[in-house]
Amino acid sequence: MPVKAAKSTIRLLRLALFIGMSLPLLGLALAWHQDRLGVIPEEVVLHSLGRWGLYALLATLALGPLFRLTHRLEFMMIRRQLGLWSFVYITAHLLAWAWLELHWVWTVVWLELSQLLHLQIGLFSWLLLIPLVITSVPLLQKALGMPRWRWLHRLSYLCAAGGILHFFLLARGFRAELWLTLLALVLLIILRLLDAKWLSYKAELQVRREQTPSRK
Amino acid sequence: LYGQAIASWTDGTNEEPTDQALASSYNNFFELGTGKSDPKDNAHFLRTEPWSVRIEGEIAKPGLYPLEDLLAGRTLEERIYRLRCVETWSKVIPWVGFPLADLIRRLAPTSRAKYVLFESIMDPDNLPGQRRPALDWPYQEGLRIDEAMHPLTLIAVGMYGEMLPAQNGAPLRLVVPWKYGFKSIKSIARIRFQETQPLSSWEAKQPREYGFYANVNPEVRHPRWLQATERRLGERARIATQMFNGYGDQVAHLYVGMDLSIHF
């Protein structure tokens, strides 16, 4: 049985997460302001935002398995916020590309988007996140119904896969972090599948138990 | 510089040179590391004294030429050239050097000298980058003989009126301003005149991404990015990349009849 988490603990956890996840963003803004980001600061900002977005997305996906392993409800109580943070960073990454890299020169934005596969994959993955963000509102989550909500939010695995592919397509040479993110996603998918199998097995057991007349 | 006067070249661009500190702190020189600031940080690993260049192949006067001999009796010129990296950043650099054609004429190549192969220093004991297989060392580059003889093609020994810093290819390097920067090989240790087209290091490693010619061309994209625009170091907004890096009226005739999307 899941351990019930105290309300005050949850509130504290959420606050800590909020502060923790705003730090990279503030750090980048400060470093930009102080001109500490090297010769091409635009590139550093662009790449850091993308990285943080992908890491936050993978961390969000890891919360489910962590909950199932530890039965600590806290992991589920911070999932919504962490998921939204990944959207914040990925959106900022997209804006940094259009603004810092291309200065909103639409002809170049269009030229790059129409010709570069990694940009198309990146934009598509970002678009996939939007319905997830909208349905993260509790009211809408209820309106949608839990089974449909769960089904919809499995898109987050596709987003992560898209993000990693986006990264793979533009990286120069061997990058350990690339393979690590891929490994993390594969592990998460395996855990997800194993869990689904285990759940359906348990459900089947339950059904059988109910169907078998009890001996008296 | 090397005890010689520097004449200024009148046909240069009137663009403002890139800040000198920037030009010597953001470099690609894999022998000194693959990060952009590695070459400057590891500059002390490059031993440049004494330096000589082995010149061989289809020429009348092959031999091991000390740097001093290569420079003796030469007028050094200052030339301000745009430098466009294949990675879409660019600089404007006041080089100090002499036309490669002057050297080639003195060496008297035979009629079989159709191409020139250049090779950088090979010194894995000292150069940290050469202890890793980032490229098949030593670094090699090549030019067609008419490209090598072109009056724009330079052997540089200095920049900004000073000797070349290690990270910019000390003590002597090639400068071919209408080609992507990787063609302008640094720290030259060997030059070979030959009949066959040399295989340059990047072409050998990633033939789909880097070709023999590597002429700056906004129309022909790199597989992972476009070449239509570039970022001039020190400036914020991107600018349009020019065909042949803006030297088209002087070099376009070298490539007449060639499909530049195939010979990229």
How would you sum up this structure, described in words?
The complex is a heterodimer of chains A (216) and B (264). Chain A is 83% helix and 0% strand. Chain A has helices at residues 7-33, 41-70, 74-77, 79-101, 106-115, 117-134, 138-144, 146-153, 155-170, 176-211. In chain A, helix 1 (7-33) packs antiparallel against helix 2. Chain A is globular and about 75 Å long. Chain B is built from seven helices and 13 strands. Chain B is globular and about 45 Å long. At the A-B interface, helix 5 of A face loops of B.
CA distance, first residue to last residue of chain B: 36 Å
Helix content of chain A: over 70%
What is the number of helical segments of chain A per DSSP (H or I, 4+ residues)? 10
Structural class designation of chain A: mainly alpha
Binned strand content of chain A: under 5%
Overall 3D shape of chain B: globular
Oligomer: heterodimer
Structural class of chain B: alpha+beta
Count, helices of chain B: 7
Q: Looking at the structure, what is the overall shape of chain A?
A: globular
Major beta sheet summary of chain A: none
Indicate the radius of gyration of chain B in whole angstroms: 17 Å
Regions with little confidence, pLDDT below 50 for 5+ residues of chain B = none
Largest interface: A-B, 18 and 19 residues
Put the structure in a nutshell.
The complex is a heterodimer of chains A (216) and B (264). With 216 residues, chain A is mostly helical.
Secondary structure blueprint with pairings:
The complex is a heterodimer of chains A (216) and B (264).
Chain A: H1 7-33, H2 41-70, H3 74-77, H4 79-101, H5 106-115, H6 117-134, H7 138-144, H8 146-153, H9 155-170, H10 176-211
Chain B: E1 6-8, H1 20-23, H2 38-41, E2 52-57, E3 63-66, H3 67-71, E4 76-84, E5 89-99, H4 100-107, E6 115-120, E7 140-144, H5 145-148, E8 154-159, E9 162-163, E10 173-175, E11 188-194, H6 201-205, E12 229-232, E13 239-240, H7 248-251
Keywords (chain A): Cell membrane, Electron transport, Flavoprotein, FMN, Heme, Iron, Membrane, Metal-binding, Transmembrane, Transmembrane helix, Transport
GO molecular function (chain A): electron transfer activity; FMN binding; heme binding; metal ion binding; oxidoreductase activity, acting on diphenols and related substances as donors
Membrane topology (chain A): Multi-pass membrane protein
